[in-house]
């Protein structure tokens, strides 16, 4: 299977080109480039947009908010997930609250977020935090509570104390699950930031899309969507790479 | 050194499944001895291992060097059937885990790990993860991890059962060699009569549930043992004697 990665990369490229081809064909059939821009015109638009300082500022503003909210959600979700996973009595208190808050989509929090934090960075960071926290917490909790009992028994019979069981058994064995939570959380966080910016910010990719919608510049709207998609996919790749580094025993 | 005195244990799985696993078991293990426990399938052999600290007997007492057993301890470490190596630790970190728990300094840890790697022949795999090892090597690593902390007794629960026959024979020989070097006390539970005779100084034969002691056989072969004894007449005689004892207790009901 030496040629496997080459084969895989080839099919990745083919699949993306296939999507672009279908898009191009559809826009040619529709034949109204104002309402349904083609990939070529979006590509040209993107080159132009990235030469503007404004657009780069918007991209950086969104990224900054995602990173801040995701970072907070990661720290709180992982630590709360571990603590409630270990302490059953605490989980009886925390779990019902989480289960009630989790179904509320981040978008529904927007009015409250704006009332609480005004316009700007804070409400967006808050929404990213809300979007990312729940999947991170749930997957961490799941990982910690589903550790194979054999490992705990083995550790006890090798003389481990509770502290060593937590640090050397519970946490490392939950890492694959924690990472799934982080990946899902980052995805949801990235979606949440765009939603927040469409309503309550004066910068960012969401704000840019909203502005161009009002100006009926669909070409720029779609360019913004493409930027969001590509950056989201890159963030995901980045996290995958970090996961492989941090979890070298998990080769699946 | 280790004494079970009239130990009984039942399991009550929600009222309907009341199972009497052990019934007034009494035996002793001498220091540096290998005691093998054989019995019909499902007779409660593994319960003896659990009693090393994970569960409490209903009645009777278990003492190690005169002290009553209470809770799991590194003094009675367990080697499980399916190795139970930590998948997230390399071979040398698995072996070092108990040493770290014991609070050894890093130099002492490193020295002990080197010793264990060399007696288990795992030197060149010290940085591998368990998933990269063969079944036999994993079991050697699990044994090494237990040996490293120098427990009073090593409890082995069907340790070689998941290996194929060839690997199993080889690893039994390897195990005896290591045992000669480190002179440990071992309690080994197995369903494999050959294994019990080849490894054991004494063999404890249990009855079907609730398990009682049928007989304690002293294995006559001198140590170190050569693999050739497996085909000797004496070996075959002991084997058929144990098999005869067991088959009286194995009925179709017990298999279901």
UniProtKB/TrEMBL annotation, chain A:
Spans through the membrane: 12-33, 66-88, 100-119, 125-144, 165-182, 188-209, 221-239
Gene Ontology BP terms: alkanesulfonate transmembrane transport
InterPro entries membership: MetI-like (IPR000515), MetI-like_sf (IPR035906)
Ranges where the ABC transmembrane type-1 domain occurs: 59-239
Compartments reported by the entry: Cell membrane
Membrane topology term: Multi-pass membrane protein
CDD domains documented for this protein: TM_PBP2 (cd06261)
Assigned keywords, A-Z: Cell membrane, Membrane, Transmembrane, Transmembrane helix, Transport
The protein, known as: ABC-type nitrate/sulfonate/bicarbonate transport system, permease component
SUPFAM superfamilies referenced in this protein's UniProt entry, alphabetically: MetI-like
One GO cellular component term noted in the UniProt record for this chain: plasma membrane
Sequence similarity: Belongs to the binding-protein-dependent transport system permease family.
Lineage: Bacteria, Candidatus Nomuraibacteriota
PROSITE patterns: ABC_TM1
Family matches, as Pfam families: BPD_transp_1 (PF00528)
């Amino acid at each position: 299977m030496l040629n496997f990665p080459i084969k895989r990369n080839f099919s990745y490229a083919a699949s993306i080109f296939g999507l672009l081809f279908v898009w191009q064909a559809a826009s040619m059939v529709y034949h109204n480039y104002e309402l349904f821009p083609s990939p070529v015109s979006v590509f040209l638009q993107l080159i132009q947009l990235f030469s503007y300082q404004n657009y780069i500022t918007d991209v950086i503003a969104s990224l900054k908010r995602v990173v801040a909210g995701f970072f907070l959600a990661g720290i709180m979700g992982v630590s709360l997930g571990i603590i409630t996973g270990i302490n059953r009595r605490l989980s009886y208190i925390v779990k019902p609250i989480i289960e009630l808050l989790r179904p509320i989509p981040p978008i529904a929090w927007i009015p409250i977020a704006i009332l609480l934090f005004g316009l700007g960075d804070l409400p967006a960071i808050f929404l990213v935090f809300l979007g990312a926290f729940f999947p991170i917490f749930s997957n961490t909790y799941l990982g910690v509570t589903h550790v194979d009992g054999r490992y705990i028994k083995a550790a006890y019979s090798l003389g481990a104390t509770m502290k060593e069981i937590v640090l050397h058994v519970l946490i490392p064995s939950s890492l694959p699950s924690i990472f799934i939570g982080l990946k899902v959380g980052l995805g949801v966080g990235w979606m949440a930031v765009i939603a927040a910016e469409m309503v309550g910010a004066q910068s960012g990719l969401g704000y840019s899309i909203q502005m161009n919608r009002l100006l009926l510049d669909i070409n720029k709207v779609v360019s913004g969507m493409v930027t969001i998609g590509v950056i989201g996919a890159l963030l995901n790749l980045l996290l995958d790479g970090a996961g492989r580094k941090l979890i070298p025993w998990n080769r699946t | 050194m280790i004494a079970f005195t009239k130990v009984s244990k039942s399991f009550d799985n929600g009222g309907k499944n009341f199972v009497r696993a052990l019934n007034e078991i009494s035996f002793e293990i001498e220091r540096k001895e290998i005691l093998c426990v054989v019995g019909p399938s499902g007779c409660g052999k593994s319960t003896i291992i659990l009693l090393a600290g994970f569960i409490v007997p209903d009645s009777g007492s278990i003492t190690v060097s005169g002290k009553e057993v209470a809770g799991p301890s590194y003094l009675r470490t367990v080697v499980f059937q399916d190795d139970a190596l930590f998948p997230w630790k390399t071979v040398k970190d698995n072996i070092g885990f108990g040493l770290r728990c014991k609070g050894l300094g890093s130099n002492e840890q490193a020295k002990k790990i080197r010793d264990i790697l060399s007696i288990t022949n795992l030197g060149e795999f010290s940085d591998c993860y368990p998933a990269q090892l063969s079944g036999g090597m994993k079991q050697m690593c699990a044994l090494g991890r237990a040996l490293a902390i120098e427990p009073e007794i090593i409890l082995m629960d069907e340790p070689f059962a998941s290996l194929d026959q060839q690997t199993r024979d080889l690893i039994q020989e390897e195990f005896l060699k290591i045992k000669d070097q480190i002179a440990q006390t071992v309690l080994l539970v197995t369903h494999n009569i050959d294994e019990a005779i080849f490894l054991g100084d004494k063999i404890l034969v249990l009855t079907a549930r609730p398990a009682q002691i049928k007989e304690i056989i002293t294995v006559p072969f001198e140590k170190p043992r050569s693999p050739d004894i497996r085909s000797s007449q004496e070996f075959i005689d002991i084997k058929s004697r144990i098999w005869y004892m067991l088959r009286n207790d194995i009925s179709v009901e017990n298999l279901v």
